[in-house]
Amino acid sequence: MGKPTHCTLALALVLAFAPFAAADETIKLDAEALGKTTLCTDGKSHYVAVGPHPLYLNTLYYGDGTKFVVVPAEPNGQLSGKNFLDPRFFNKNSNANFRGVDCRVYSDVELDTEKNTCLVRCGERKIPLTVVAADKAAPMLKAATFLPNPQKFVPYALARDDRGTYYYVDRGSSAQTEKNFRLFVGQKGNLKQQKMTNVVSDSEGDIFSTPTGSLRMIIEKHTSTWIESEKKRDLKLVPVTPNLPMIYGELGVYAGQRLGTPCDDL
To answer: Distance between CA 227 and CA 210 in Å, rounded?
Structure first.
């Protein structure tokens, strides 16, 4: 598996692996893949498995030694499979624009099989791990259950008004659920989900509405509008990618939720 690949050494690869799958779907790893998988632990029932991937070179799994979840790689193949998105941990020293990727919100696993060393970096913090001996790792991995990542929703759109109220939309994380949208409205740290459905979603934008139409939110390419009892309020669209740390750390929508990365616990 070689030495760790960081943002400055990332590979430009084409996306060919869907990082999310149905929540109840078990992932089957063949014997060859398991034989090439390295297991690391902090000695406290937290394990990181680094396995092969045909395009990213590596796939990460995280779990307790009996159950592991997939840790999704950067979706456009610009980073190594050892890098993973976790906006809760920010690294101001990383590249803010590596081939269009903000590496500051990516953490990684650094594995050196030649030196037999392993660590997880969460933002600026590094947590040393121990490589599990192959004769102990092999039966553990063979008996383990591998599952999709637990994240069911991912960010889609963000807007705010001149009163500091935020309007946040996320969508299902899998190909099967990507048409499932949720809308949250409120001040930072206290956004509440609205009982609204997405009635229009096309290349020009989205429209969310209550069944009676008394509340509507219109998101277009450059503008957004909130309509309440036919009174319109113009909203400012806020770009999602540069604001991922705020979305995951300040809005409150994902407070206490696990993202299925080593940084959940380490």
So the answer is: 11
